[in-house]
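Methods — Computational structure assignment.
A single polypeptide chain was analysed. Its primary sequence is given first, followed by the predicted tertiary structure written as structure tokens.
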Amino acid sequence: MDCGPLQITARGARREIEAAAGALEADPELEGLAYSLLEEDESRDAWRIDAYPTSEAEAEALGRVLAARPALAVASAPLADADWLALALSGLPPVREGRFFVYGAHDRGRVPVNLVDLRIEAGAAFGTGHHGTTAGCLAAFDAALKGARFRRVLDVGTGTGVLAIAAARAGAQTVVGTDIDPISVRIAAENARLNRARVRFVRADGLSHRAASEAGPFDLVFANILARPLVRLAPQIARRLPPGGVLILSGLLRSQARMVCAAYRAQGLRQRRRLDREAWTTLVLQR
């Protein structure tokens, strides 16, 4: 059963928060949970998780996981019936990562010249550029572009489509974005239209859609999802990369980086770079 808009917040030290986030990812009932990790005060080692369950079952599972960590201070509050997501996004500043400038409709008058501007409206999809994982991917992509050109790009778990659209706007000729959520696919396609970017978005669980095979191999693959799916998909993703192909991974906690990297080393990839943002890590690997 669906529940009304609800925010559950857990506060504690970084070690406790990262451990709780790992427990959330390990729980199969919470695989689709939307949540974020934020550092509130570095001097006090004060961190928090903000989670947004969408069903009673998800809220109950979330409560069980957090209750198992008594060091956390947990609180819940209903969200207003207004479009709370749009209200929250309206207060977010634009994001600049290298040559990329990500903004929403409320910042249309603040777009600088000589940058690749990406107008991204999130709606109910993940990826406005503010989260450490998305920002890390954009920063990694910007650095990779300084030494190479990527003509064929795949974005696994595209969310709002921001990474796929960035690739298209940076000159990629063929770009495919996949997502398991049909709402995300719709939002990503609308964002591509807003940015006049040529991207094919398809609904798929991982790389199951034939578009992820027929358009490959890919010079560059993004996969900004979660650690467990990244490990599970390692063989499939590796097969989409030719020798020299670049892979940018995120959606994983710092503590999960070694596990994820090991899964891709087993497929013949080597780590070239690592970026840490808040509690999150972005990995750049090459076949």
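Note: The chain has a mean pLDDT of 84.
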